[in-house]
Queue: 2 jobs
Job 1
Amino acid sequence: MNFAKFGKISYVAETKLQEFEKHLETGKVMGTRCKSCGQTYFPPRADCNCLKGDIEWIELSGKCKLMTFSTLYFAPASFRYEVPYTLGVAQFEEGPAVLAPFSKEIKENEIKVGMSLRLVPTELIGGRMIYELRKADS
Amino acid sequence: MRKNIGYIFVFSILLALKNQLNPIGGRLLTRKPIVSIVSAGLSKFGKRRGLFGRELFVEATSEAFEKCPNLDPRKDIKAAFIGMMSESLEHQGHTGPTVLDWAGLLPIQAFRTEGACGSSATAIRCGIFAIRSGLADIVLVGGVEKMTHRNTADVTEYLAMACDFPFEQWNGLTFPGLFAMVATAHMHKYSTTEEQMALVAVKNHHHGALNPKAHMQKEVPLEKAMSSRVIAWPLKLYDCSLITDGASCLVLSKPELARKFTDTPVHIIGSGQASDTIGLYERKEFTSLKAGRLAAQEAYKMAGVEASTIDVAEVHDCFTIAEILAYEDLGFCKPGEGGPFIEEGQSHIGGSVAVCTSGGLKAKGHPVGATGTAQAYEIYLQLTGQAGKRQVKGAEIGLTHNVGGLGATGVVNIYSRE
């Protein structure tokens, strides 16, 4: 089994990207880069859009800037006990962007488009691995 | 000499044929019919308790066939394309033959098209492909979704299947959440306000109150929309479209045959479709839905018309911010000016373009698989003067804009009366 622990919930555990979960467990935010065209992917992809090269794993700094966000007060069935929660899209210094939940350490009224953040791998109770947006200096 | 005349003759014939049979995308088709709508049907939209989805579909086909007595459906229709998004809702897959059987249309070949909330707009596209290919002269296109028998949290989860599963759904993202993030970005970039978004709801509920088939047929004042509970900030309850049961269909024919079935055909004169990334995080821009924009450009070019020519449009107002984006993506106003556009009443009946006269997804309702052909149904009514109290006087050119998910699918069609 691979990729079985990633995400708050999951339906599919099989992917060519199984290493991603292991990297999260060691605290690393890893993306992929195409050896042929240099395109960087996060979340990682195993096949580059250029369809030419092999991909390699690269570590990202985790440093990112908030592009947009929303606080959800109504959730799908699987998340009904988690509301309200805030999700944001943040762009890494290295280029790609990520959708991730905000850490509870950041209060809703502190959240502003453009703020500096850091994406941090986080283990949930029960051993599931996610990543979340924390303050830049965390 | 005689030989030369022969060549010229053959050349002229070929040119004429090219004009007639020009593949989709050609410039020569300017304002020329690609296919014709000869009839259309729409079930009542709403909470339709006590009905299967397929029974709703029969309501739609019954109306279309009753209005078109010269059509012998089982004999004349050569293919059917039916949009439906989610087999989870009724636990029923294999939609094509299922709904066709209940509509009494076996053994016509059936196809299900799926493009999330744009499913039946892609059915229209398939119908166009079928007719233009020459393989079928008359086709049925439509869509159906039965949703309200499920609780809202489950429906929210099923609809979220139209966003990226490992990197969006697994974080608890929903469609209100996605469009809320689009709204946040639009507010940040262009100073669009929550009140401007609410004004879209007020307008579309006003139109819905004039549509006897709409799910919600009452006015919603601005204060009520603004003070409704937050679903996904900055979107509130009245910024969201309705979970609705409904079905819709069109009978499309080769333009040359349209007069055999009706005196008032409506022609599709331009059509476009494009795709975009499934995930929001993979986009370069959050304040425009690129697939819809590209689809519009393709459709305008094919039709040979400009945005300013459109009299009436049904756009994808799954959330109020989505209608504001649509104004901009369709070129009704410049990027960033969607907020002032609704504020000035430009999209009202009597404004520069009447938008969502049916009430839109917002008030007529959004049975996701049925929405694309339901939009075309409204334009059909408008261009044939059958839209009752919400009729746009003298409407000649109409447009539908239907997107799937967060615009990973975008379809635009342009229509003209004869």
Job 2
Amino acid sequence: MIEVHDLRKSYGPLEVLKGVSFSVEKGEVVVVLGPSGSGKSTLLRCINHLEDYESGEIRIDGASVGYNTGAHGRSAHSETINARLREQVGMVFQSFNLFPHRTAIENVMMGPVHVRGVAKREARAQAQVLLDKVGLAEKADQYPAKLSGGQQQRVAIARALAMQPKVMLFDEVTSALDPELVGEVLRVIRQLAQEGMTMIVVTHEIHFARDVADRIIFMDDGVIVEQGTPERILSTASAGRLKLFLRRYQGDYLAG
Amino acid sequence: MFTVLDSNLPYLLQGAVMTLWLSVAVVGLGTLLGIAMGILATTRSRLARAFVTGYIFVLRGIPVLVVMFLGYYAFPAFGLHVNAYVAVGLAQIVYLGAFVAEITRSSILSIPVGQIAAARSLGMRRPAILRQVILPQAARIAIAPLLNSALTAIKQTSYASVVGVWELTYAAREVVERTLAAFQIFLGVMVIYFLICYPLSLAARWSESRLSFAH
């Protein structure tokens, strides 16, 4: 469903993605691990074209993301096409990014009402179902400021799901949470995975990766160093850099 | 003790009416102009941003009195006959616009970029993002400074008297010249200006406490 081919992205003189290639099948859960600065977040943001990129190709369901590459070079897509694409790719952020001036349920309704033109009553009903799904039915009319981090993140997940995306991208969604709140968010993501949602999850939660991932991709310094099943990647930890990375979490990992 | 003030009060109040007209026009149109320019300053067009930046930069570097003199003499310089009130009023509108533009621009830019990213990732486009995410929050941030700049503009209408336009301060100086009762006249004028500005001051204070809680 998602194909990334030789993706290169630089911020000015700094090359952040140095030729990344991989694919994700429908219904697959791919977890991306790697140290800070390895380009994981940038990769996600290129996939839904929040960032543009210098060269390479990204395709979602065959449709090219951001650019049309032809015999005469490439031309950028209009903002309309990009926005349309983003309707189909849901994203959840490390810092939640809820709209503070709207209640939880209004946040969830934001996409359907203002992008798809769904009537408010219908949108509200659908939003209530989604909030219930993430375990926050009774918090519908609360403002984000009154919610804990874990609750805000679950609202953010519901908000992304409201657009019924084909793919969900999770960008270190538990990294900003207190440890005791991490579990409630991972539970929701795990449930989504079991329901067959295609997902790319960037995370530091190695236990979670082992339990939920169909495939793990390890990135470092802008390239994919290794990818494979959780069993192979985590148990045998072949390459030096991956070993180093896991050692940092080893205490954490071995304890579980 | 205030007999001179008493007897001249009607005349002064007529001046106050002109001040009120000027104030309403300047604050109303100047704020609208400034908000439009401020929003323009946040678009992707480099030309628009450069234009507004230049506008803000230049006008904030000139005293309002000089701008008002320029306005007063600009039209005759091009052979146009324009009512003095309109000329000076326009000058003040343009001047206030610069300050309001800067307030608007910085309020909009203060919205955390993560929210914009979230809105974009839902498929929202710029007009919807502006209307649903940015402006509701920016408006709350901007209200207090906007009310303050409105207050300043109202007080600055008194400079029109220096340029030669008849309003409250001009009327006051006429009366003082005639009666020499400077202190009581200007005391009265002070009270009148205060009464004109007071509602706005209250509104500014009220909005600060009520709206800043909203987040």
